[in-house]
Design goal:
heterotrimer; A alpha+beta; B alpha+beta; C alpha+beta; A: alpha+beta; 33% helix; B: alpha+beta; seven-stranded mixed beta sheet
Chain lengths: 286, 763, 163
């Protein structure tokens, strides 16, 4: 039963409320409502609506560093002209995200905090080595810790975030010159779909050799993950048929999918291989 | 100066549904939107077991919750058996048999309170060994689901014509296959909803989503222990039906029982999850089919043995063999046929009727087998079908009279419009190439009742038509509107016969206290049956009006016509008198007459005899559909690029409506082919949400090309036939045949999900 | 007495004040507290689009939005799309193209269709049938098979582009 409803207008105010005890944070609401309706999660006694915290909105860039406010919606990412130029893979993933109505409401912070193994926005952000900013109220002021997104998730619906923390922004550096990346996703329905498998691959291709290789995969493990073994297989090597075969084999070893109502582990592994091949071919530029 | 009015027909035109503007503006009040004064909200506690003894139910805490008015369990009411074979009761006492079973119900001042009360009810069970597969359930010593049926056998059907052994002996090729067709569900956008209200005399008014309001009274009454005559059914607008509302399901009598106990109106609405779990499904069927053919492509016999999972109770699903059988015995000229079905009780969920009613399953099988037989004898799918297609005048072994058979014509048009043979051949040639995408084309055909289906003693529909002093018509029909557009068709018929505009016609069809009897909206029957009924009523009204006009004119009634609100001379269109003026003259005289006619149309069809022989429908129709697909051989995704549909529709009455019915039917069949399956494991529904049960959405919709064969059915209203089920029947096997054409793999158990296709290709 | 929060916002051009429990959805508030029954509860989890309304210029699934978050916003429902006098052009197109059968999903579908065409206004690139289908991917319809829906939206897009 909700006994308190709070609408903070600043990060400091929100952090103070969180400091006072456990609360349910609502942003876009797109994941929260089905979870509570289905009984998977109960409301805490305090409901905090963070939608009025203006400093958590918007996409900004200073020097080579991008900062996406936690309340930025997926639509805002999709429509961002600067992201489309600098990090098109993020826009590509946004375009595959759920439906237009959900994109209009869902926030980047919400998608990350929901920590679904199939969370689509996690994949491109993992490729970008993104970090998240977590704010809390410590000794009378706002304290912010910055954490690699790769270290953020701990299991389905679970993250390292403490109950007194708020995810205020996602930050990442503009990729190095020549950085190419792609996002692949499947599903019987094209968009309004919890991914059977989603995959991102990024690299700097030069003279048939890939460097700065990154492979991120969703829905094949308890958390969205970076396939570091496969990255190592590919890093600095000449991309030919045999390397692609080797990488596809490696990535299928690296994932640990489950059988569920959406797909079998076998099919998820199979798709992982298919998508890696497609992604490599795309990134290598053919 | 005389007014001259030309004849303008509305038949065959694109007429929007009369109720569409209110639906487009959000004004339409659906049953789910209704609120009655003093209304309470009902909720049902469904069991979480699949087979268990109920040891005890403690409702004391629920009853004590403020805002709760009534809590009922099976022990609070007498045993009230209802259902197709009287094997169901509203609230279960003593034992639960499947995951849908209703063990208690609450009426409270809000849905939230009712939901909270459900959480306070404690039920103690003792689990019983369950049985889920029909094969297992038939074994000696299997758990008994229904005590009255210790062998677990529910309904069975049998038909035999000719000597199978002899036919097999003269066959050059005999093929035997097994097919396994899944559970799918209707996914009506408006979740299940009912509102019940008793008056002090004990008479029930029930606001229902039902598709068959008149027989619904008969079926609902025993579940309440009241007389069917004491039930008035009101049908507010509904969010889809598709066959799911052709029976009484427990939530309806439960709602009425709550209303009676509480002495207040009670509304009971399903959540989407409840809707997925508790709605009747399409009947799942395991088929064994043996079929023979001679080298020259002549079919010799079909022998079909099928097993139906009855689930724990019997709704319409286990009766679908009645229509399945017609296709196995009557689609293409098959001289020798036998058909056997056995429905078997299990602790699974139970099936009802769903657009296509058994023919969906039968056509998936026959259309797949036709392609396999053709390949065996080295014929192409078109020539093979044409060779075995019946001609006008033939009668099938079950007595379906094909007086004007357009099967061959449909096949020829479909083949020609799609360049079928060239593509089919080319795709086979490309199968072995190592391309990511493979392309396929496939054809399927079927037959369906298109003039009603006489499964009750009457298959009729009544109409009351009146014209008022202002020449406004009210047509009161027994036919229900569930979105299919009978409102437009009947309006057009009145417009055509009486020469008045759409805006001057009101259709009333939502109250059994007003409307004359009708069987219900099912079996592709409404345009044909209700249309004929309305047409006859309109013609009687027309005759009465013209006879009156002739009395005061030197023109005879036969030489007159009704156009644009006038009585006119038919040959030159010269106006004689305004219709409203004439009607007032008829009314306000010394010998007053009102125009108010009644009509009951009974189609010239037959009940089956005990051997399942008889011309069940007043007419039959065929269709031939061609699917063109692209298969991603890496991921297994099948994309339907185009669907070309050719169908004998008799005559198009409403071009807009008929296209809508066909496009909508194709979409449902697309889901059946590729993505939809209600996954049930150990009696439990695993995917009760749109997230995991995949209905087609706009991006998956293929390009659709429609061709109407207008055979001008002699018995049909203005020549029309019933049309709305074939589009939901034929596309799925056309897609399966196209997938085979693309990759050489046949799928005997739809849906052809990406995973299934990928497994077939890679595992 | 359980907690209720007073929220104020603009609904179809009129200012409203309403008290809602903090856990209530926008859809429930619209239907139960404000008599706006055009938007429907068909799934309650953002999978079908039948509850689509426009808030601050963007369409959302009102079954997923908390009613308390409506405070200070501008909301348009299907009831606010046309006028008392007549249908808005998109509504009219859905009627004329025969897109509406049972119609239960249509208030949401039409709201999304209107938004889709508005979003593309001023864009040089015309909406293709594929664009329209994708723009409606969050709206489920079980009657129409979508073809006539796309026809209707394409007709409006064309008409408004050439106006």
């Amino acid at each position: 039963m909700i006994e308190n409803y709070k609408v903070p207008s600043s990060i400091a105010e929100a952090a103070q409320i969180l400091h006072q005890g456990e609360a349910t944070i609502v942003a876009g609401g797109t994941d929260l409502t089905p979870q509570t309706e289905a009984g998977a999660r109960e409301f805490a006694v305090t409901l905090i609506n963070i939608q009025r915290i203006e400093e958590m909105r918007g996409i900004s860039r200073s020097d080579d560093r991008y900062r996406i406010g936690g309340l930025t919606t997926v639509t805002e990412i999709l429509e961002s002209e600067s992201l489309a130029i600098d990090v098109p893979v993020l826009v590509e993933a946004a375009d595959h995200f759920a439906s237009p109505q959900i994109r209009n409401a869902a926030t980047i912070a919400g998608n990350l905090c929901n920590a679904s193994p199939a969370g689509d926005m996690c994949i491109p952000l993992l490729l970008l080595d993104a970090e998240v900013e977590l704010a809390s109220w410590v000794d009378g002021s706002v304290s912010v810790r910055t954490l690699a997104l790769a270290d953020f998730f701990t299991g389905p619906g679970k993250t390292v975030m403490r109950t007194d923390e708020l995810l205020t922004a996602v930050v990442f550096n503009q990729p190095v010159a020549g950085f190419a990346a792609t996002f692949q996703k499947s599903g019987p329905r094209p968009a309004l779909e919890i991914s059977t498998v989603s995959m991102g691959v990024a690299a700097v291709p030069e003279a048939g050799v890939l460097t700065v290789v990154r492979v991120a995969i969703g829905a094949v493990a308890p958390v969205p993950l970076r396939a570091t073994d496969t990255e190592a297989v590919l890093e600095g090597q000449a991309l030919d048929e045999s390397l692609i075969d080797k990488a596809a084999e490696s990535v299928q070893q690296e994932v640990s999918p489950i059988d569920d109502v959406r797909a079998s582990a076998w099919y998820r592994k199979h798709l992982t291989g298919v998508y890696l091949r497609r992604a490599l071919s795309h990134v290598a530029g053919n | 100066m005389s007014t001259v009015i030309e004849k303008k027909t509305v038949i065959g035109k694109r007429i929007p549904k009369p109720d569409a503007p209110d639906k487009a503006t959000g004004r339409t009040i659906y049953i789910n939107d209704m609120v009655l004064p003093r209304m309470l909200f009902g909720k049902i506690l469904h069991t979480d077991r699949v087979h268990a003894k109920i040891i005890s139910i403690d409702t004391s805490a629920a009853k004590a919750l403020p805002g709760v008015h009534t809590v009922l369990t099976g022990d609070d009411i007498p045993v009230l058996r209802f259902g197709t074979t009287r094997d169901n009761v509203p609230l279960k006492a003593g034992k639960v048999r499947c995951i849908r079973d209703e063990v208690a119900a609450v009426a409270a001042e809000s849905e939230a309170i009712a939901a909270e009360a459900l959480g306070l009810i404690k039920v103690e069970y003792e689990d019983l060994p369950p049985v889920f597969s029909p094969t297992e359930a038939l074994r000696e010593g299997a758990p008994v689901v229904q005590e009255d049926h210790p062998d677990n056998r529910s309904l069975a059907y049998e038909f035999s014509h000719g000597d199978i052994a002899a036919a097999e002996a003269e066959s050059d090729v005999v093929l035997e296959h097994q097919f396994d067709l899944p559970y799918v569900t209707h996914c009506c956008m408006g979740p299940g909803c009912v509102i019940a209200d008793f008056d002090t005399a004990g008479k029930l008014t029930i606001y229902s989503q039902t598709q068959y309001p008149y027989n619904y009274k008969m079926d609902l009454a025993p579940a309440l222990g009241i007389h069917p005559g004491d039930i008035r059914v009101i049908q507010p607008p509904v969010g889809g039906a598709f066959g799911s509302k052709l029976d009484v399901y427990p939530f309806e009598p439960i709602c009425a029982l709550l209303a009676r106990a509480a002495g207040r109106p009670v509304k009971l609405t399903f959540s989407r999850e409840e809707e997925f779990i508790n709605s009747p499904t399409r009947q799942p069927v395991e088929f064994k089919i043996r079929s023979g053919v001679k080298k020259d492509g002549t079919l010799t016999f079909r022998s079909v043995d099928c097993l139906l999972n009855n689930g724990a109770y019997t709704s319409w699903g286990p009766t679908t063999p009645v229509i399945q059988m017609r296709t196995f015995t009557g689609h293409f000229r098959v001289p020798v046929v036998e058909y056997k079905s056995q429905s078997v009780y299990t602790n699974s969920v139970y099936a009802g009727s769903f657009r296509g009613y058994g023919n969906v399953q039968a056509t998936y099988v026959t259309a797949s087998v036709m392609d396999m037989l053709a390949e065996e004898v080295g014929m192409d799918p078109i020539a093979f079908r044409l060779k075995n297609a019946q001609h006008s005048g033939e009668i099938t072994p079950q007595g379906s009279i094909l007086d004007d058979c357009r099967l061959g014509e449909c096949i020829e048009i479909a083949a020609e419009k799609t360049d079928f043979l060239r593509k089919h051949e080319a795709n086979i040639g490309n199968r072995d190439q190592s391309a990511r995408f493979k392309y396929g084309i496939g054809i399927a055909t079927s037959i369906h009742n298109a003039g009603g289906a006489k499964i009750h003693k009457s298959d009729g529909c009544g109409t009351i038509l009146k014209l008022d002093d202002y020449a406004r018509a009210t047509l009161i029909t027994g036919a229900s509107e569930i979105g299919q557009g009978i409102d437009a068709v009947l309006t057009q018929i009145v417009m055509e016969e009486l020469g008045i505009p759409m805006s001057d016609i009101t259709i009333v069809n939502n109250d059994t206290a007003l409307g004359p009897w009708d069987v219900g909206v099912h079996a592709s029957r409404t345009t044909f049956i209700a249309g004929n009924s309305a047409l006859r009523a309109a013609r009687a009204a027309r005759k009465q009006v013209l006879d009156a006009a002739a009395k005061q004119s030197n023109v005879t009634a036969e030489e007159m016509d009704l156009r644009s609100g006038y009585v006119v001379q038919a040959d030159n269109g010269v106006a004689i008198i305004k219709l409203d003026k004439l009607l007032r003259q008829m009314h306000f005289t010394d010998e007053p007459e009102l125009v108010m006619v009644t009509e009951y149309y009974e189609p010239p069809s037959e009940l089956e005899d005990k051997n399942h022989v008889g011309n069940l429908s007043a007419t039959w129709a065929h269709g031939a559909y061609v699917a063109e697909v692209r298969v991603d051989t890496e991921t297994g995704e099948v994309k339907v690029l185009k669907m070309t549909a050719v169908q004998d529709v008799g005559r198009v009455i409403n071009q807009l409506g008929i296209e809508g019915q066909m496009e909508g039917g194709i979409s449902v069949s697309l889901g059946y082919a590729l993505s939809e399956e209600l996954q049930i494991r150990d009696g439990k529904v695993l995917n009760p949400s749109f997230r995991d049960y995949k209905v087609p959405t706009a991006p998956e919709t293929p390009e659709i090309e429609l061709h109407f064969v207008e055979s001008n059915c002699k018995e049909g209203p203005m020549g029309a036939k019933g049309i709305a089920e074939l589009p939901a029947i034929i596309p799925a096997p056309a897609i399966a045949n196209a997938v085979y054409n693309a990759i050489g793999i046949r799928f005997f158990a739809p849906p052809m999900t990406p995973e299934k296709v990928a497994r077939a290709l890679h595992q | 007495m359980s907690l209720e929060i007073e929220v104020g916002f603009t609904l179809n051009g009129r200012t409203v004040q309403v008290k809602v429990p903090p856990g209530m959805t926008t859809l429930a508030m619209l239907r139960e507290k404000l008599d706006m029954t055009g938007g429907k509860l068909a799934c309650g989890e953002g999978e079908c689009g039948a509850c689509t309304v426009k808030i601050d210029g963007r369409t959302i699934n009102s079954c997923l939005m908390f009613a308390v978050d409506c405070d200070g916003r501008d909301i348009q429902t299907i009831e606010g799309l046309g006028s008392v006098a007549g249908l808005e052009i998109m509504q009219q197109a859905f009627v004329e193209h025969g897109a509406i059968q049972c119609g239960y999903c249509m208030p949401g579908m039409i709201m999304q269709a209107r938004y889709l065409v508005d979003q593309n206004a001023g864009n040089d690139q015309k909406l293709s049938r594929e664009d329209i289908a994708r723009g409606l991917e969050g709206n489920v319809c079980r009657c129409s098979g979508y073809t006539k829906v796309v026809d209707a939206v394409a007709a409006v897009a064309l008409e408004e582009a050439s106006a």
